[in-house]
Specification:
Pfam families: DUF3108. This protein has about 290 residues and is mostly beta strands. The protein has one domain (about 10-280). The chain has three helices and 14 strands. Strands 1, 2, 3, 4, 5, 6, 7, 8, 9, 10, 11, 12, 13 and 14 form a 14-stranded antiparallel beta sheet that branches. The relative contact order is 0.22.
């Protein structure tokens, strides 16, 4: 198995890392059933200045999900970075446990582009491809154990809630996301902070507006990073990170309405301007693209 560690980068252009791309693995045919579909759009700001837009589409049914996301930098950020990308992930879930089966990202910038793809089985990496390859000098090695029981960065946005109770319960926020992005392994721990009310843009027809649960977030590097590096230390000590989670109507899942992260040059925020759900009958049949 390929070991592909790398250290995180915290710059204005790093907001583009929230955009990913996937060729999803096929899913076997199954009887028709209802699927909740979400279409969301987000504004991306840094220090209160608009630097990009993102869109997310997700399909969530009784035991599986698929999600795609794209991001495009705008204005000065586009001029400086040329940043854009798109992504998708696919997998299943039982209760609150998410088990991805495929993930990939494809980002393009003026100075750096990358393509990462991996397939999983039983929560463990089975196949992986990362371009360009990562320099591993002085980094904490990524072991096979680090590549088991993980979620990819996009699947981490899908947060199902076990049981049949209230989705926006305080306990729904409390979870640790064991993220592997192809280059590094890290934990994102969430814990309940408060309740808020989210409001969509006036022109966003049929968009969700209402209660959201706000989770404080913390970061802990596991592998693939350079110990003591300034960016790693900054993130591990960062107390100004939070995620606002909104319910996906017709499902037992929460998905971010807003993500706010303090960076060394200011606070980066992704906020939903539209969050629309609908329930459709999902036909039987295979779907997907080989990795």
């Amino acid at each position: 198995m390929t070991r592909l560690p790398a250290s995180p980068r915290l710059r204005a252009a790093s907001v583009a890392s929230l955009a990913f791309a996937l060729s999803a693995a096929p899913i076997l045919a199954a009887p028709a059933f209802a699927e909740t579909q979400l279409r969301a759009r987000y504004d991306v700001t840094l220090m209160g200045i608009g630097i990009g837009t993102a869109s997310l589409q997700a399909g969530i049914d009784r035991a599986s999900y698929d999600v795609t996301m794209s991001l495009r930098m705008t204005g000065l950020a586009k001029f400086l970075t040329g940043g854009q990308g798109a992504a998708a992930a696919r997998g299943g879930y039982v209760g609150a446990a998410v088990t991805p089966t495929a993930y990939a990202l494809n980002t393009r910038g003026k100075e750096k582009s990358q393509v990462i793809r991996f397939a999983l089985a039983g929560g463990a990496i089975r196949q992986i491809s990362v371009e360009p390859p990562v320099k591993t000098k002085d980094t904490v090695p990524i072991t096979e154990a680090d590549q088991r029981g993980i979620v990819d960065p996009l699947s981490a946005l899908v947060m199902p809630v076990a049981g049949s109770g209230e989705l926006l319960d305080k306990s729904s926020c409390d979870r640790t996301l064991p993220v592997f992005d192809g280059r590094q392994r890290y934990d994102v721990a969430l814990h309940y902070d408060r309740m808020e009310t989210a409001t969509a843009a006036p022109e966003a027809k049929d968009s969700y507006s209402g209660k959201v649960i706000v989770c404080k977030a913390s970061y802990r590097a596991i592998a693939g990073h350079k110990p003591g590096r300034e960016q790693v230390t900054f993130m591990e000590q960062n107390k100004d990170m939070e995620v606002w989670l909104a319910p996906v109507a017709g499902s037992r899942a929460l998905i971010p309405w807003k993500i706010s992260v303090r960076t060394p040059i200011g606070t980066a925020v992704i906020t939903a301007t539209s969050f629309v759900t609908e329930t459709k009958e999902k036909a039987a049949g295979a779907k997907g693209v080989d990795l």
